[in-house]
Specification:
Number of domains of chain A: 1
Oligomer: heterodimer
Order of helices and strands of chain A: EHEEHHHEEHEHEEEEHEEEEHEEEHEEH
Strand content of chain B: under 5%
Distance between the termini of chain B: 33 Å
CATH superfamily of chain A: FAD/NAD(P)-binding domain
Number of strands of chain A: 19
CATH topology of chain A: FAD/NAD(P)-binding domain
Strand content of chain A: 15-25%
CATH architecture of chain A: 3-Layer(bba) Sandwich
Chain lengths: 573, 276
């Protein structure tokens, strides 16, 4: 073995997605020499958005969805389960064949595998949490209490929103706090019609334009959205928030950043004599060689389940069940948002209205159930849900499902069809001890790292909530005057359809809490057991709320870095 | 995985919706400064059969096989199609390809704007069959094609490609009626199912109908595999519609590209094309 100089940094960040990018930016800007390890390939801003602005006809399969049955999905048997898996975006998804996991029950794990992670392909919807969410566990007894409250995160929401750039409309709702919004995008004519109908029929319910991390006003070099539409291909004007457009350039500007792609972390190194983590071990996926690198503080931002896998695989005599897992909760309480339930129908009239531009956003109906407490409405379920949806006029593709051929068909499809509106509910899932991920005792990946085994299913609360999610979608649409309303629920027990993971909001497997016996992380996202290791991706979440979680990961990450640097200065790490 | 695609297709729509808030496929205008000059392959729309043959012969070094000639001639069968022999199908035989050209051209004919032929829908169909369709779906599609061919020959003693446009239209109209029989009873179907091959178990016998010798072909009862949402013609029609409206011809000549402008409500006048 060659003698190697010991490679040392002030900080190591594992992962370069939404959380990792923020950790890198904040650490670098505070003067720490920071190494970011990313298991996937490098993706350079602009240059590597190889399908951006391509027209449908430039793709051999014309941008049809690639289903698992397609020969093209051979290496992507899990990724192809999501509707996001289309021809123009395949290169931003992981090859399942090379990164397998084991499903005890149907669990769809959608993963990026590149610098920027899923920040390149995320849905960009950004909603603050409130104390209705941060106190939910305490008030209804599911899970443990969050060790923080809204006031702890509020300034950090503002901080990250101003940098990320969030478009949205202020509503003044206590349970869905307003943020630092750029000017909102527009609702179209049918959405305004549905909004008026719902708000009239159901006082206290709201329909608003989505709050999302797409610019409507410039920030530095980042330009306002040019409304091309398919954000998931990458955005060369930096109009949506991604690690590439936003955090990594800021980190790079400090001169403190070292970014190493193709570096899959195996474990966190732990020194028992000092009771601190000392660095990480990773494998260069190109050469297959293992390397150890060292730092004073470590941020795990590898995404919920990969962070879990790293912690569980970091075994020592002090931590035989994985680093920071003296509580035994690491891997447990896996949550996701349950969805694929909602309603759709035809909006009458408005045949003299249309829209132009390709809006990368829809509408949002904030939670209206159990607003005074997690069970305040005395329903068959606790907590709540919100809806995301959109309306548009029928396009040419209605020709597929309707009778007619020849000149008549062509004539019909030439003009836009009637307006249709559809909406999907996103519901809070409860933390359940038996929804979990753990290391398989036999099977390993190419690099000898044990595979993750996942077992997760919706609890009776989610199932009861789904009935209401479906029913309320129907009631609201009908009350708004929408015709031919149909409601749907794709969930099938033990099968694919609305299985856990599909929401791509997995979280909770290294939860924050007040008690080291029942939680992995403290109020500052430090491992209770090993204070120089911070976890700020979805693994840290103590409950799931029903809002899209990424903005909260951003805020918690920036907040945790601030804490870490203060602790470093006090020599507490 | 197994029998998932029908559900998966609906899920695909819904999932895209939830993350983008707009179910319509979005595309980019060719006028955006970021877009390189749009590539517009020359699409001959007024090519004659003789010219097509001449070009094909040139491309093939002056010799043409019988099936290629058949394909080239069939390529002109929808009254407007281009027919260069530079392309050869990977899955379809020349005869099958000719049949696809004729069927697609009947579903989406040339009018004031080009039809399926000029949009080279046959190439899209061949690509989908070769690269995208699971083996059983491919077989189901090809056996449906054979069934249509055999049925036509029994009724007219001619190949579909040799029929007059009105005879072709009559057959395709009937296929469409059978394929949407349930839909016509049950009412309108949700629009916009993406192309995704079906993989559900079917009780339909592949190839059934071929080789039958009914006394009166016109009164021949429909094959179950030609009726309803799982019929061959639904696949065929989906491929034709998608192939046409996602082609450059379909997007820029028949329809129009939604410009890259801040999203806003605008007035609409009937006769203005929908966004591609």
């Amino acid at each position: 073995m060659l003698l190697q100089q010991r490679e040392e940094y002030d900080a190591i960040v594992v992962g370069s997605g939404i959380s990792g990018g923020w950790a890198a930016k904040e650490l670098c800007e505070k003067g720490l020499r920071t190494l970011v390890l990313e298991r996937g390939r490098n993706v350079e801003h602009q240059k590597d958005y190889i399908t951006e602005h391509k027209r449908d006809y430039e793709f051999p399969m014309r941008q049809r969805r690639i289903t698992p049955e397609s020969p093209l999905a051979k290496d992507y048997q899990v990724q192809a389960r999501t509707g996001q898996f289309v021809e123009a975006g395949v290169h931003f998804f992981i090859k399942d064949a090379e990164h397998p996991y084991i499903e005890e029950k149907p669990y769809t794990w959608i993963q990026g595998n590149q610098v920027g992670g899923r920040s390149l392909i995320w849905g960009r919807q950004t909603y603050r949490w409130s104390d209705l969410d941060f106190t939910a566990n305490l008030r209804d007894g599911h899970g443990v209490d969050w060790p923080i409250r809204y006031k702890d995160v509020e300034p950090w929401y503002s901080y990250v929103e101003r940098f990320a750039g969030i478009t949205g409309e202020k509503l003044g709702l206590a349970h869905l706090p307003d943020g630092e919004f750029q000017k909102p995008m527009e609702l179209n004519a049918a959405e305004q019609y549905v909004k008026a109908g719902i708000e009239k029929a159901f006082p206290g319910r709201h329909l608003t334009i989505g709050r999302c991390a797409v610019l409507t006003e410039p920030i530095g070099d980042r330009q306002p959205c040019h409304y091309c539409g398919p954000c998931y291909r990458g955005c060369s004007t930096g109009s949506y928030f991604s690690s590439q457009s936003s955090t990594l350039p800021a980190a790079r500007k400090t001169g403190k950043l070292t970014l190493r792609p193709n570096s899959l972390v195996h474990s966190v190194l732990y020194d028992e004599s000092r009771d601190r983590a000392t660095g990480v071990r990773f494998v260069d996926t190109g050469t297959g060689e293992f390397h150890d690198v060292y730092a004073t503080v470590i941020f795990l931002c590898a995404s919920t389940l990969n962070t879990t896998r790293i912690l569980l695989n970091s075994k020592s005599s002090r931590f035989p069940e994985g680093l920071g897992n003296s509580s035994g909760v690491v891997g447990r309480y896996l949550m996701d948002h349950h969805f694929m339930v909602g309603g759709a129908g035809e909006v009458p009239g408005l045949m003299d209205r249309y829209y132009e531009g390709n809006r990368p956003n829809g509408f949002y109906i904030p939670r209206f159930r159990n607003l005074r407490g997690p069970a305040s409405d005395r329903l068959k379920f606790v907590r709540g849900y919100g809806y995301q949806g959109g309306a548009g006029r029928g396009g040419w593709n209605r020709g597929i499902g309707e009778p007619g051929i020849g000149v008549e068909l062509k004539k019909k499809l030439h003009d836009p069809g009637p307006w249709r509106v559809s909406m999907l509910a996103f519901g809070e899932a409860l933390p359940d001890k038996d929804n979990r991920a753990w290391l398989d005792s036999q099977q390993t990946d190419t690099w000898g790292i044990p595979l993750l085994r996942i077992s997760s299913q919706w609890t009776s609360n989610e199932l009861a909530m789904r009935e209401d999610m479906r029913a309320q979608a129907g009631e609201m649409l009908e009350a708004a005057g929408v015709r031919n309303v149909n409601t749907f629920d794709r969930h099938k027990e033990g099968d694919l359809g609305a299985e856990p993971g599909l929401g791509i909001h997995e979280m909770g497997t290294a939860r924050m809490g007040r008690d080291p016996r029942t939680s992995a992380l403290n109020a500052n996202n430090q491992l209770h057991d090993v204070p120089n290791v911070y976890v700020t991706d979805g693994a840290c979440m103590t409950s799931s709320a029903c809002q899209n979680p990424s903005i909260t990961y951003m805020a918690l990450t920036a907040r945790a870095v601030d804490h870490a640097v203060r602790e470093l200065n006090r020599r507490n790490l | 995985m197994g029998p998932q695609s029908a559900v998966a297709s609906r899920r695909a729509q819904a999932t895209i919706l939830c993350l983008t808030g707009d179910a319509a496929p979005r595309t980019l205008g060719p006028t955006h400064p970021l877009t390189s000059a749009p590539r517009r392959p020359e699409i001959p729309t007024d090519i004659t059969r003789r010219e097509a043959l001449r070009r094909a012969a040139l491309l093939l070094g002056g010799t043409l096989s019988a099936p290629t000639i058949a394909a080239v001639l069939a390529g002109c069968g929808d009254r407007q199609g281009p027919a260069t022999a530079a392309w050869t199908p990977r899955t379809l035989t020349p005869e099958q390809n000719a049949l696809i050209v004729a069927i697609a051209g009947t579903i989406i004919p040339e009018t004031e704007t080009p039809g399926a032929g000029a949009a080279q829908v046959d190439r899209f169909v061949d690509t989908m069959l070769t690269d995208h369709f699971a083996a059983d779906d491919k077989e189901r599609f090809l056996s449906g094609l054979a069934r249509l061919d055999a049925r036509t020959r029994r009724r007219h003693q001619k190949a579909f490609t040799d029929l007059t446009p009105s005879e072709q239209t009559a057959i395709i109209t009937e296929m469409d009626r059978l394929a949407f029989q349930e839909a016509m009873i049950a009412g309108r179907e949700p629009a916009g199912t993406p192309v995704s091959p079906r993989s559900q178990e079917s009780d339909v016998q592949v190839g059934q109908g071929v080789g039958q010798t009914p006394a009166d072909a016109a009164a021949e009862p429909p094959d179950p595999a030609d009726v309803g949402p799982e019929s061959f013609f639904r696949m065929m029609k989906e491929l034709a519609v998608v192939g046409y409206y996602t082609s450059e011809v379909g997007q820029t000549q028949e329809l129009r590209v939604n410009p890259m402008k801040p999203y806003r409500d605008i007035p609409y006048t009937p006769g203005t094309p929908t966004w591609a």
